[in-house]
Amino acid sequence: MWDLTARLCAQLDAEVGAAGCIVSRVIGDVLVQVAEHAPDGRTFQLGRGFLVSQFPATAEVLRTSEPRAVSLEDPSVDDAEASVLRDLAVRAVLMLRLGRGAVAWGLVELYRVDPPGFTGAEIERASAVNSRAEDRLHVILDNRRPG
């Protein structure tokens, strides 16, 4: 499973030309980073945990399964989301829910410096890659269940 999330990060990064990608596991209201990829060698680990409830756009993605791009260029960007983007020295994030069913398994975040956003076509391509990873994750999780 961890190999799957690491490969997903690399594939998504290559697909949309991002500055990097992370996958976090959703455990209740907490996001725990489990994989990252950054072509320039940077890290996206800030050394702190994140509560989903403190990030409205993130919570919406996990609740609705709809991809969401957030940019510092958007005048209505949420302060909490903007703070993380600034801390990571990026200008935008594309968030994708990972997992099927009522409860999300994880959150995928693609970061971008330039251009400062994601196009509709890039969101569609990233969603397609993420969907294939969800298929593989579903098989892995099913095979781990007893019975």
Quick structural overview:
The protein is of the alpha+beta class and 147 residues long. Helix content is 39%, strand content 24%.
Chain-wise SSE layout:
Blueprint: H1 2-16, E1 20-27, E2 30-37, E3 50-51, H2 56-64, E4 68-71, H3 79-87, E5 92-98, E6 106-112, H4 120-144
Antiparallel strand pairs: 1-2, 1-6, 2-3, 4-5, 5-6
Helix pairs in contact: 1-4
Top keywords for this entry?
147 residues, alpha+beta, six-stranded antiparallel β-sheet, 4 helices, 6 strands, 39% helix
Task: Describe the protein.
There is one protein chain. The chain is of the alpha+beta class and 147 residues long. It has a single domain, classed as GAF domain (Beta-Lactamase). It has helices at residues 2-16, 56-64, 79-87, 120-144, and strands spanning 20-27, 30-37, 50-51, 68-71, 92-98, 106-112. Strand 1 (20-27) and strand 2 (30-37) form a beta hairpin. 33% of the residues are buried.
